[in-house]
């Protein structure tokens, strides 16, 4: 363990999973096995972490005593301990039953509990302490996401020498919604501890600047505000995916073969409609299923010419809202299949499972229409993965206007997911689009993604943070030229 990292990432989770089997690429430390967990964030940050003896601070995923810090994949990992009670109150409670729904337009009512807020504060302090202990003098610390909104100010208090960034992966709500939060001033002050607060969209950065003026009377000009004698910048940095990985996967002959096999297994339909989401009420899965059912009932679509595949990855299964959603989605799937399936020919294939990257790529390659219709979403990486995997320029994307991705993927078939008729219309337009027009749209979106991948995202953010650093205290220089 190197003392004093010049670059520290702080996130709820470490980019590793504990495994019990003998899977390859695992590392055993003190009798426990770890495997790197794939993800855009770690892919983008790995080169920066490796170049700068970086450290990642986060929870290991299992409750109880934290494992000792260890090295993996070329950088250091510092596990933070969470007890069962803290997992329930900080993670399932305050993070995923209060903040998550509130920041997603309150599409489910947020639940407010004092004991959750207390745990959130205590746990945020623990992450801040871990980062403060490991960061070198003048280091850059990048805090990630809604679970850790108090970390920037706590960290600044402990270590005023640090350059602190924060990035919010989910939407930032308008003032009227944010003001519901009993912890509102504390959260805002927490975020203002950062030098740069990054959001997925410009509108979110605007919401933040306006909120600071409204709640604390903090003046701002452009996207910079003055707070306690410091400058804090709020800006948009739309996150992206590892475009190269997705293209390589979809070019792989085994993936191509698997895509064909999927088509066959589905009965060689004319149109395959695909949805891939975490099973989350923000993703609009129920609305999408209803739109499909109505189109079958209107006679505009029929089985077996058209089939739908809905992958709904298990998620936050101990949280009440998620349990209720699962029941509703499965009831809707049952209803559609009850009315429109035949023996051996389901109308909807519903898969409540996780898949490998290559199986996901094969599904994307097999899908004629991809439905990404969240009611609200910070970005939505699935939409970008689908586009990146269609180097053949085939397929059509139906995309919600309420996904951050809609700000970039303008050639998708955009729709308002709250308006069932609009979802049906967009689905029909995508299913019946002229192939030349579909290719033109996909080509433009592909070109956009090639220039805006996740490495460019990380580099833009860190560049912007470094510029703030060089105009204030002397901070350690961080190169980010990948
Ligand atoms: P999420 O809400 O989790 O992310 P999303 O951006 O779509 O949503 O990312 C999901 C990821 O999980 C994708 O990379 C996808 O491939 C993967 N995945 C989905 N189903 C899977 C399955 N069955 N098996 C394996 N992998 C699966 C949050 C915000 C988003 C924001 C991201 C990144 O809610 O708005 O885009 O963070 O900032």
Give structural attributes.
binds adenosine-5'-diphosphate-glucose; six-stranded parallel sheet; 16 helices; ten-stranded mixed sheet; alpha/beta
Describe this structure in words.
Helices cover 44% and strands 21% of the residues. The protein contains 16 helices and 19 strands. The structure holds adenosine-5'-diphosphate-glucose. The site of adenosine-5'-diphosphate-glucose has 17 residues, from β14, β15 and α13.
List the helices and strands and how they pair.
Blueprint: E1 5-13, E2 16-19, E3 27-29, E4 32-36, H1 40-51, E5 55-59, E6 70-72, E7 75-80, H2 84-103, H3 114-134, E8 135-144, H4 151-158, E9 163-167, H5 175-178, H6 184-191, E10 196-199, H7 202-216, E11 220-221, E12 224-227, E13 230-236, H8 243-251, H9 253-265, E14 271-278, H10 285-297, E15 306-313, H11 320-340, E16 348-351, H12 357-366, E17 369-372, H13 381-389, E18 396-400, E19 413-415, H14 420-432, H15 435-451, H16 454-471
Parallel strand pairs: 1-5, 1-8, 5-7, 8-9, 9-10, 10-13, 14-15, 14-17, 15-16, 17-18, 18-19
Antiparallel strand pairs: 2-4, 3-4, 6-7, 11-12, 12-13
Helix pairs in contact: 1-16, 2-3, 3-4, 8-13, 9-12, 10-11, 10-14
Bound molecules: adenosine-5'-diphosphate-glucose.
